[in-house]
Structures are given as structure tokens and as C-alpha cells.
Write a structure and sequence with these properties.
The protein is an all-alpha fold. The chain is built from 9 helices and no strands.
């Protein structure tokens, strides 16, 4: 819904005799914005990815309304994942590494059981190294996303803001972002999760079904 509906609105309703370039863009951006706010209302949880996503949507609308040159869209598209990648690396040197939010959390894994096994076997230091490697893998996915975001935006968004062409280009960029950006990044994240789980199995001597939430 957050991709198809905004894409249709921006590409099909941007003409002046329909919603027009500005309103079609604002209505389209309202869908992911509304979804993000709804998720927060349901879970009462906010995370960095969601917050930056909402900021990105707001910036896109603001840049279009201010009619900034289209290259600013490309810069913004690259900046958001770059910030996430940098935050991931910085978090490695804090008590709360970002990898624990994305992969090593109690929505996916039985954290208490894993920690107990690591402590019993004396593998806590080895596991810390595993988390660091996973963090670098996650950071690399954000770097890849930043590069692809920038290239895609520079390639597609070339018209001046406030025009039907600009809004249609935003729609096409939104549509192409899934196969071009989301899928490769998801593959890397899936690889990071596989690496993490396989090492958890080795370091805890537990099987996957013993550590995954909902496996028992």
C-alpha cells in the first residue's frame, strides 16, 4: 500500500485537471506518513528507522513546496540511509548497539536463553565479536541503500518541483525503489540474520528451534 497507492496517485493524478502536481504529491506522501503514525499509535514504540522515514517524507514534501532544485531530492535520499549506517557503526561503541534493535531482539530470538547459554559456556566475548560483524553487515546494507538511492533519484527526478512531471518522477522513483533498493538491502539484512543465528548456534550449542521465538 505504501508503494503502489502513492505511485498511482503521483503518476496518474498529477495533472492540473485532477489533483495537480502539489496536491497529488501531498496526498501520496500522506499514506506512508499516516501508516507510520498509525504503527506508533498501535505499538507506542518509536525507533530510529521509523523516525528518519517520517523525516524523509516531510523533507520530500517540504523540498517540493519550496521548489528546491531536484538534485536536493537525490541528496536527501542518500542522506537518510547514510545517517542510519553511521549510527549503526557509532552504536557499536555504546552499550546499545543498533544490531540489537534490528536483529538481536526478543521479537526474533529468545534473548534470555541465549545469554544464559553464552555465560555458561564462557562465550560472551566471542558473541560480542559476532555482534560487531553483524553491525558492519547492517551498516553495509545502509551504505548500499544510500548509493542506490542517490543514483536512482539523480536518474529519474530531473524536472523542476511544482510541475506534473516532477510529481510523476517522484512516483516512478517510489515504484522502482522496491526492486532497485529494498530487495538488495533486504538480502544483506537476511544474510546478517543468518550469520548471527548460525554463530549463536555454535556459541550456545543450541539449535535454531531452541532460540527462535515461536519455534517451540
Amino acid at each position: 500500500m505504501n508503494i503502489i497507492i502513492p505511485t498511482v496517485i503521483m503518476t496518474q493524478l498529477n495533472a492540473e485537471n485532477r489533483l495537480g502536481p502539489v496536491w497529488s504529491m501531498l496526498v501520496a506522501l500522506a499514506f506512508p506518513l499516516g501508516y507510520g503514525l498509525h504503527q506508533y499509535w498501535q505499538t507506542r514504540k518509536a525507533n530510529m528507522i521509523s523516525i528518519l522515514g517520517l523525516i524523509s517524507i516531510t523533507l520530500t514534501g517540504g523540498m517540493a513546496l519550496l521548489k528546491l532544485p531536484p538534485q536536493y531530492i537525490a541528496i536527501k535520499e542518500a542522506a537518510i540511509p547514510s545517517i542510519l549506517g553511521l549510527a549503526t557503526v557509532i552504536s557499536m561503541y555504546t552499550p546499545y548497539p543498533f544490531v540489537r534493535t534490528i536483529l538481536f531482539n526478543d521479537d526474533i530470538l529468545q534473548i534470555d536463553k541465549i545469554n544464559a547459554a553464552l555465560k555458561t559456556l564462557g562465550n560472551e566475548a566471542a558473541f560480542a565479536r559476532t555482534l560487531n560483524t553483524s553491525s558492519w553487515l547492517i551498516a553495509s546494507s545502509f551504505v548500499l541503500s544510500a548509493i542506490l538511492n542517490y543514483v536512482l533519484a539523480k536518474w529519474i527526478v530531473v524536472s523542476q518541483p511544482g510541475t506534473p512531471e516532477f510529481t510523476a518522477e517522484l512516483g516512478r522513483m517510489t515504484l522502482l525503489s522496491y526492486p532497485v533498493i529494498v530487495l538488495p538491502s533486504t538480502v544483506i539484512l537476511a544474510g546478517s540474520l543468518f550469520y548471527l543465528i548460525s554463530n549463536v548456534e555454535k556459541l550456545t550449542q543450541l539449535k535454531m528451534e531452541d532460540i527462535m521465538i515461536g519455534s517451540n
